[in-house]
Every structure is written in C-alpha cells, then in structure tokens.
Task: structure prediction
Amino acid sequence: MRCDDPNDPHYPALAAMEQELLAFRQRNGEPYRLIPLPWPQACFDPEDGHRLPATYANFLIINQAVLVPTYGDPADVTALSALAVAFPEHTPIPIECVSVIRQHGSLHCLTMQLPKGTLARGTPTTTAIC
Result:
C-alpha cells in the first residue's frame, strides 16, 4: 500500500514500510519488484464516524481471477491496473466492498475461518472463530 497524502495518519507507517521493502533482497541479491497499490480515500462509518478499513490489499486470488475490493473511489481503477500487472495470468474482477468494510473486513477476510457449527452437519468445519 502506498499513501501519497502526508496529512493522512497512515502516511508515516506506510512510507516506512515501503522503505523496508525496498531494502529486501532476493537470494541472488536482486531487489524485489514492488508494485504499489493506491490508498483509497478515507471511508468513515456513518453511525459513529470512525475510519473504516478500506484497502486494496485485501484482494483474493482465485483460479484465474483476482477479486479486488472497490469503494467507488477514483483509485479503484489504479488498484485494478496494479493487480493486473502483479498477476498477469489472472483477470482482476472488481467487487464493491463498502458494505463489507462496515463490518471491519473485506474480501480476503470473508473467505477465512467459519465459526464451528455454521455449516450443515457432516460438512467439514474449522474450529477457528473469526
């Protein structure tokens, strides 16, 4: 994730993380190729006003596609393009996620563990609780 707004509270941490990533090297000494994802405009909960976790990094890779969270933000197009470059064998598919981030997650989070007992009897389940 790259934040280009120095006034955003997340800017210092994301800039520091980018510098750390730029310093990483592969076994052969070559740097990794970084493909920055944009930082969407801040989304706020309409009920209590706190900032919601809108991020394009919560994408999901499936078969020949990458499901990409979108927010009706101008940066949606940039995120789709960046993920198309990162995963050239996959088709990026935008999924509107404003309602999902109101639950404090996004696409990848939705595919994680299900609480035990949520699936029909006889179907394998996990014991982890999300």
Observations:
- Residues 36-130 form one domain.
- The radius of gyration is 17 Å.
- The chain has two domains: 1-34, 36-130.
